[in-house]
Write a structure and sequence with these properties.
The chain is of the alpha+beta class and 176 residues long. The chain contains five helices and eight strands. Strands 1, 2, 3, 4, 5, 6, 7 and 8 form an eight-stranded mixed β-sheet that branches. A hairpin with a 2-residue loop joins strand 3 and strand 4. Helix 4 packs antiparallel against helix 5.
């Protein structure tokens, strides 16, 4: 997040942010409809570190190892907070307490004709449980939990920002 290494997220973000980001990495197929997906994402405090998801993929987007904030799609009938708690339990293995709604980032993935509406939260892990990753999360994306400082997470984002997919992830995770 913008200057995340220098700020206290609880006190420095007074008003929720809202950004819209275009995909300048991949071409859009105008013959296909754009699908919209509502997503929840979290910056998850775990004592003096933060939990992120490590992703290792090799697919249509390319080959890349990177970190991203944990989260996923909001299912029918769920509100944002319910989805957030479910996703972090599934991906990170944490029961969490939401601290603050941070804002929304709308981004596009032209390669799959999708617009994501990412709702960001700051949360605190209050208990650890077993993860329940899907087969795709385990076998296609090789998701795993990592605990790092915010500074170290930013270094990982900096390392990937010059790749096609990395540029999209970097801009979403490091607010302009």
């Amino acid at each position: 997040m913008k200057s995340i290494e220098k700020m206290d997220l609880e006190s420095s973000i007074n008003e929720p942010f809202c950004y819209e980001l275009e995909d300048d990495s991949f071409d859009l197929d105008p013959s296909k409809p754009i699908h919209e997906r509502v997503i929840v994402r979290a910056i998850c405090k775990v004592k003096d570190k933060y939990a992120f998801v490590h992703v290792s993929r090799d697919d249509d987007f390319g080959k890349l190892d990177y970190l991203e904030t944990s989260g996923g799609g909001v299912e029918d009938g769920e509100d944002l907070e319910e989805a957030l708690k479910r996703e972090l339990r599934e991906e990170l293995g944490y029961v969490v307490k939401p601290i603050k709604y941070l804002g929304v980032i709308k981004d596009y993935y032209n390669l799959i004709n999708r617009r994501n509406i990412n709702h960001y939260f700051l949360v605190e892990a209050i208990d650890e449980v077993e993860t329940s990753l899907t087969e795709d999360e385990k076998n296609k994306f090789h998701l795993s939990k990592v605990l790092v400082s915010l500074e170290d997470a930013i270094k990982v984002y900096e390392q990937i920002k010059n790749t096609k997919l990395g540029r999209l992830v970097y801009r979403r995770e490091i607010i302009p």
